[in-house]
């Protein structure tokens, strides 16, 4: 079993509790690309000063297709909202370890609770501001009853797994793979891509394994820049694991950005900084499942 840092262990409970809602919902609501996401807003960004205010949209992200986001509300109704470069995305304090700052659109993962301020653009809605909300696990039950798309195989697997996890904060860490990045970048190298699919294959061979993805930076740059960068790196890894390595979303705990925290090596040397510019992918199995 790999040795894991104290900070990573501390993250497990927070990530698991938030991720349980996000991952479970994501499995139940994920849709094929372009499925039921038609919207008539132009792809070019309109003059926002000329657009009237639209309705507030609250609910769960239930599908993504390019710049279009589908949100399912508590009553099961769905709205499609367009996002562009001017859309401001923030998070509730403490969600994924993120503060209320501008986030990348890659943070808009299926299953996340959101409140969206909109503008009326033709027959569609354009998001002016999106806030990721920090809600409890009741949100998952809301979407479970509010969407008609159950994905029976994934739902059954998820429910069986969740039902056996009495102590979801207690995991055995079966392995940790670190994927490294260039300074200030979040692009995956060919070696990183290969390593991610290898860890997905390793985890797939284990019964009921989950993945916890944690992004880090070296000490170069400001704390605010590094926080956003660590989150972007974690999101990039999650996307690649799901899209290229075919890792199921419902077996992924909520990704976390930890900025400069928990360095593996000394940031005073180029070699140390290179080790710290990383995303750690942890293979986890609940002790309730693992037997000890």
Description:
Helix content is 32%, strand content 23%. By secondary structure, it is an alpha/beta fold. The protein has 2 domains: 6-28 and 153-290, 60s Ribosomal Protein L30, Chain: A, CATH 3.30.1330.60; 31-132, Beta Barrel (OB fold (Dihydrolipoamide Acetyltransferase, E2P)), CATH 2.40.50. It has a 5-stranded mixed beta barrel with strand order 1-2-3-6-5. Strands 7-10-8-9 form a 4-stranded mixed beta sheet, with helices on both faces. A hairpin with a 5-residue loop joins strand 2 (68-72) and strand 3 (78-82). The chain is globular and about 50 Å long. The two termini are 13 Å apart.
Q: What is the count of helical runs?
A: 7
CATH architecture classification of the largest domain: 2-Layer Sandwich
The top-level CATH class of the largest domain is Alpha Beta
Main beta-sheet annotation: 5 strands, mixed, barrel
Radius of gyration: 19 Å
Low-pLDDT ranges: 9-36, 38-43, 94-100, 135-168
Residues in helix, %: 25-40%
Query: What fold name stands as the CATH topology of the largest domain?
Result: 60s Ribosomal Protein L30, Chain: A
Strand content: 15-25%
Count up the domains: 2
By CATH's scheme, which homologous superfamily of the largest domain applies? OmpA-like domain
Biggest sheet: strand arrangement:
1-2-3-6-5
The quaternary structure here is single chain
C-alpha end-to-end distance: 13 Å
Order of helices and strands: HEEEEEEHHEHEHEHEH
